[in-house]
Amino acid sequence: PSHSRSDLASGQLWIIPNIRVRVITKKLGSRYFKEKGIVLDVTKRGDATLQMTDRTLLDHVAERYLETALPRPGGKAIVLAPGTHQFTKGTLLERNSERCILQTHEDMAVLTLSLDDIAEWMGPLEE
Q: Which first-to-last residue range defines the signal peptide (predicted)?
């Protein structure tokens, strides 16, 4: 499944600092194609600064060249989809090819979500 947020309203940015993403273009160089990185910063235009797994920094990466990376069960996640739970952080309890179950950090609620609605969270759970 694609996790590039095509299901979100056009013009709405899904990319935020502290999420893990995957590069989905060869325009940044074939060595980064399908590689993961952490979003360090996002400009108002939606371009990201990434720290790749090999510690290389990539600047001005367009949102359209990225998709969300998903945590393994037990890993930290954040809800990116608009709505009541947007930006809620929690622990991924389980996932299959389409859906996942997330336990929220704040109130321990259990949510069933589309995989397209979440990303791996690399920041602190408390904020």
A: none
